[in-house]
Amino acid sequence: xxxxxxxxxxxxxxxxxxxxxxxxxxxxxxxxxxxxxxxxxxxxxxxxxxxxxxxxxxxxxxxxxxxxxxxxxxxxxxxxxxxxxxxxxxxxxxxxxxxxxxxxxxxxxxxxxxxxxxxxxxxxxxxxxxxxxxxxxxxxxxxxxxxxxxxxxxxxxxxxxxxxxxxxxxxxxxxxxxxxxxxxxxxxxxxxxxxxxxxxxxxxxxxxxxxxxxxxxxxxxxxxxxxxxxxxxxxxxxxxxxxxxxxxxxxxxxxxxxxxxxxxxxxxxxxxxxxxxxxxx
Amino acid sequence: xxxxxxxxxxxxxxxxxxxxxxxxxxxxxxxxxxxxxxxxxxxxxxxxxxxxxxxxxxxxxxxxxxxxxxxxxxxxxxxxxxxxxxxxxxxxxxxxxxxxxxxxxxxxxxxxxxxxxxxxxxxxx
Lengths: 281, 125
Known about the structure:
The complex is a heterodimer of chains A (about 280) and B (about 120).
Chain A: E1 2-6, H1 14-25, E2 29-33, H2 41-45, E3 51-62, H3 72-76, E4 82-85, E5 88-91, H4 101-105, E6 111-126, E7 129-136, H5 144-152, E8 161-165, H6 172-178, E9 183-188, H7 192-208, E10 212-219, H8 225-233, E11 237-242, H9 245-252, H10 257-260, H11 264-280
Parallel strand pairs in A: 1-8, 1-9, 2-7, 2-8, 9-10, 10-11
Antiparallel strand pairs in A: 3-6, 4-5, 6-7
Chain B: E1 2-7, E2 25-30, E3 36-40, H1 50-60, E4 65-68, H2 73-79, E5 85-88, H3 97-105, E6 110-111
Parallel strand pairs in B: 1-4, 4-5
Antiparallel strand pairs in B: 1-2, 2-3, 5-6
Helix pairs in contact in B: 1-2
């Protein structure tokens, strides 16, 4: 079972929920921190990161001695990352998405590919949890290829539950993090910003056909607009975490919620059981 | 000389469009005879790489020079090896393509020697 934790708005508690869920799920759990622009789950789970792999996309390299400048590569490139003008074939690496269409379609086989390193994947165990995260290099514009390879990386052990900590927002990196999951946990807070961004990410899960439930963090502040929206949208509220200073203090010092507040352990166990039941239903 | 002028409409009397990659259309005009044709810019709706696509388009139309208001790095790097000269027309005034043609004939347009602004990079990420 694959569970993705997303939120839309940043700072609502995705990592708080994802890490505590991983700790109660126990052994045979795989954890993927998909927020490759600012991964932080390792701060809480403290894995022994002993494996490291450079990742990126494959950029075309044109052998001008074989190229006939027929223009087929430029025709098939959806991103205009390769252009043929006169007797020159030009590659624009920052527009390339590494899809390989040009290489595949070149009638002269004049295109080979080279890895353009965009970041690294690191992995290792945190107790019984098989942990991995991606780290995007500073200045890179595209997170999706790194997230895609993080999802594809071979697990170190067979897993029963995979938990993905998604990036904030509702754009391509979030879509890629959600894609292929069996269930989406949407963490929000009862504020206008929380609601606005919850709607966006709920739309993404709906579009992808992935069942979703809501966790209200910092419960007790703001108003009841989240409840009204969830009722209208048919989204179950699965857990509420009240606004408490001791939680904020624990998380600020790198502790997980279930570690700092053990009474939440059974609540997260119940949450996992609810999700499992819904996925298997 | 065959000149491609970025425009907002469908004739030589249309307004000059100061954008290159996202111009609505290009008016291709023979600077000697004044004969002209208009071609919609296929890059207008591109999600990214509009400069590259528009540059290939005007090169395929056989233009030896383009006149626009600005050229991004990808447009510049495609037009240069294509041998298409890049002229800059004033962007602050509302000019027609015909008026731009007159400025070109009078030798009043300068050539861009480098990209005039930074890239926009994709747009949908």
